[in-house]
Amino acid sequence: MAQILVTGGAGYIGAHTARLLLEEGHDVQVLDDLSKGYAHNVPKGRLHIINLHDTASLDALFAAHGFDAVIHFAALIAVGESMQEPERYFRNNVGGSVSLFEMMRRYGVRRLVFSSTAAVYGDPEATPIPEDAPLRPKNPYGESKRMVERILEWLDATSGLRSVCLRYFNACGAEPRYGIGEEHQPETHLIPLILRAVKTGEPLTVYGDDYPTPDGTCIRDYIHVSDLASAHVRALDHLLGGGGSGVFNAGTGRGYSVLEVIRAAEKATGIPVPFRFGPRREGDAAVLVADSSKLQKTLGWRPQYETLEAMVGTAWEFEQRRRRG
Question: Quick one: 31 and 119 in the same domain?
Fold first, then answer.
């Protein structure tokens, strides 16, 4: 059993990962300022409401727990918002990370799993995207994650901080046995927005129908949140076992267009999805699909959810459960 700190662990992906860590026998503490996460996502007695810039509270937390490793999710994640408020994204995502890394160094914590993103690639030259593809972010969100990755490279070289950066693609779905799912406010992710349109009858806006793709809409690689949580746990096992630093894509290797996701949701729900086309959203790449063979070969990870319909089905189940209260 290891002592693990999960930052941003009251959010969507962090909460699923924290639950899986507990199932695997680790002692988990969750740090979250609840600006985006929810206390009800965290098991009782494990939540510490702290902002990463609050160094006094962060110091007290590290002093009270002998952490063996950190899994770092805490970040702002909305691409469109980052184009409008870039300073806020750099201050939060980069500045908050540096504050955390300084505290880890102070207390001798030398293992970190970092939640990165496919947004570091921008518009890739080829798909599926390998980890050694050029990094050309198209938005401040992706740039902030790229900057943290570079910081971690230097910390590995200068202070021995071993890190695994997981560049993941579009997380979706929900783990039925946990009873938690996507609850972003405001919601920006496609599948919950589609399901909202199903429930309310208010049309979904599809941003752009003139991308260089078969049906003109953006293509993304969707990975179930439980598979993504598993990737984080496998990365942690790698570091706890003495493994070195690395960067890995986390995705299924198959891309779906926005219109294909809409059709999958119609199959899962049995209800037509109302939608309309709008202009392209600034900062969006046309196609992002992962080559995750390195993650599978190196860390022994395999996605369990392989069809989009199954992933959307778990999201729909969560939405129905939430509606019933």
Answer: yes
